[in-house]
Amino acid sequence: MNELSQRYSRPRWDYLGETKSGILTIEGLPVTEIAKKYGTPCYIMVERAIRQRFREFKAAFPYPKLRVQYASKCNSNLEIMRIANQEGVELDASSIGEVILALLADFSPHEITLTNLYKTPQDILFAVKVGVLAITADSLEDLELIAQVGKSINKKIRIFIRLTPTIDLGQYTTRKVQYGIPYAQYKKACDFAARSPYLNPIGLHFHGPYVYNPKVYFIAAKKLVDVAEYMIREHNQKISYIDLGGSFPVAYGDTEVFHPRDMGKKFSDYFVKLIYKANLPLPYLVFEPGKFFVANTGVGLTRVISKKLRRTTTLVVDGSTYAFLPDPIIYEDAVYDILPASKMQQRRSQHYKIAGCTCDCIDTICKSVHLPQTKPGDLLAIMDCGAYSNTIASNFNSLKRAPMVMVNEEGVARLIRRRDRFSDMFAPELDVLKVADPHELQRYYNLFRVNINKMWGEHKEKKSPVRGRFSSQSKRRAKKSPPAQPLATPDLSNPITTATT
Ligand SMILES: Cc1ncc(COP(=O)(O)O)c(C=O)c1O
């Protein structure tokens, strides 16, 4: 096993290497083995790197009352959440679904906060009953709703008040974000929360859009500490938590971004000074990053399925921006590093466009990447895609979303999420059909009669590499393979009884 060749290496990918024959390895495991066992496309997460990111973040802030939460919206895989838990990190849930996942991942309720823009009374009741640390109120309306729910159960509900101060720093601005209570309304929000017999405002919250400049956290801290001072002065209400959100940057391609350790010590000292100056008791300082922990620790493995001669030669792969890597269709400037996973030692000689496999012309994973001569069957590794890929991916074109594999330090891979099944994908409609009027069923007869998953399993997907060329040998093989079994003609006379067979 070799180190990754210089032309591809980046310090953040210390888990990559390559075999003597030029196959990319992850923690020493050749990706061809992962492709063979789990198929492509698939996500590969690197356990050691994830743990390291959690530890680096915690070590960056020498503040005595630091609480780090994982914003699971960026990758809510249960195993990753369990690793966060083992690493002493708490959880920022953006929905009741994520609260439930957090409980499944063994977080204690008091390690979970629920922060989002929209919650129903039932969501609030559920979160209170579970006993989450706090529910974050995102608007004046949200505050009122939470208070109403508190009244209905005669309980004071622990809340964080989410505020959005205006911060303009060069290109950076919070002016366009829709979340949080505008800072100009903080007194209104605080007065309401402090006076309500059904709210216990224990924390203040801020989350800004993608932070390029650490000064954002310094400015936000000052604004929130001012509000904490207001709360104690006007209402004798102690603020025990100051939450400054996530949005720590991650490197994609050759962009350089600040690391929490570059600002953590200075920020911690500054924050302590702010608190002492305001004569407040030291609150917990909360951060809730998502992508910082997992973006650079995930690799997307995909296989080239065809090559098309266009102005820029186009390689179509078996992943897509919809079901696999949605970032490029959400952010115009999203650019992944793409490595020739099965040809790491060959000289780069050509620029290719990498297109996803749906019939949509915007399904472009990368407009231009420099690679060795590449042909159908070759594997490509899409780097730094561990955050906001699987959780945003959809079943557009009724494609299955990819499985996720975790590779440990010894180079052992295990499945941590299976590929979608047709039955998962169609359940919302099939469930409706099941309870439809029996006469209606005739129209959907085939869906009932055929066990789709079983049929699919019988004609299992081939996981062996795609042939590079449609050779005469492969044509011969194609002729020899047995003809597909025709479906028996359905007997429509009694759809219900036949449906169960
Ligand atoms: C409230 C809140 N906290 C944390 C995060 C995590 O952000 P990031 O993954 O950019 O760190 C988000 C992302 O949208 C968020 O809305």
| Alpha-carbon distance between the two ends | 53 Å
Q: What structural class results from the helix and strand content?
A: alpha/beta
Categorize the overall geometry.
globular
Q: What is the overall pLDDT average?
A: 90
Cα-based radius of gyration, to the nearest Å: 26 Å
Low-pLDDT residue spans: 464-481, 483-501
| CATH homolog superfamily of the largest domain | Alanine racemase
Bound molecules: pyridoxal-5'-phosphate
CATH architectural group of the largest domain: Alpha-Beta Barrel
Largest sheet, if any? Answer: 9 strands, mixed
State the CATH class of the largest domain.
Answer: Alpha Beta
Helical proportion? 25-40%
Q: Would you give the CATH topology of the largest domain?
A: TIM Barrel
Number of helices: 17
The overall strand count is: 24
